[in-house]
Amino acid sequence: MAELIDHHLLVEPVAGRYGCQELLRTYAGELSSRLDSAAERSAALFRTFEHYLYSADAAMALLAPHRGRVTVSPPGPGVRPQQFDSAADAAQWIAAEQHLLPELLRRVGHHPHAETLRRRLLPALKAWGPDL
Predict the structure, then answer these.
(1) Is the pLDDT assigned to residue 106 strictly greater than 90?
(2) In sequence order, what DSSP letters do the residues of the chain get, joined into one string?
(3) Which of 16, 45, 86, 119 is packed most tightly, with the most Cβ within 10 A?
(4) Which superkingdom heads the taxonomic lineage of this protein's source (predicted)?
């Protein structure tokens, strides 16, 4: 990771959270368009969205147990939600991930199940801030 950061291929906007530079992201998207089917790309986006849905629900269960929880079926294959040991862990995760959630909500806009996904995720995210 350090070498990728040194060569400016990755960025670390928040300690322990990594992302790639826009040029690399664009190239990866173009490569995926050529090599992966639309169904594969849609399934990957759905898994990412589910990861955040289940992780946000788990975080909110610790941070605001009095609020209603999102009723969800078990996660799909390949989805590994974040697990939290304490409310402090959940709050730390929310603070670290909060910057990408608005973008994730925008990107899901073209997914065949966009409305269902938004309806499932938004109740868990409302406590995170007005931008969501």
Answers:
(1) no
(2) -HHHHHTTSEEEEETTEEEE-HHHHHHHHHHHHHHS-HHHHHHHHHHHHHHHHHHHHHHHHHH-TTSPPPP-PPPPTT------SSHHHHHHHHHHHGGGHHHHHHHGGGSTTHHHHHHHHHHHHGGG-TT-
(3) 45
(4) Bacteria
69, 60 contact by CB (below 8 A): yes
pLDDT of residue 80: 92
pLDDT at residue 121, as a whole number: 67
For residue 126, what are its two tokens? 């409302």
The answer to pTM > 0.70 is yes
Map tokens 């291929």 to a residue: 9
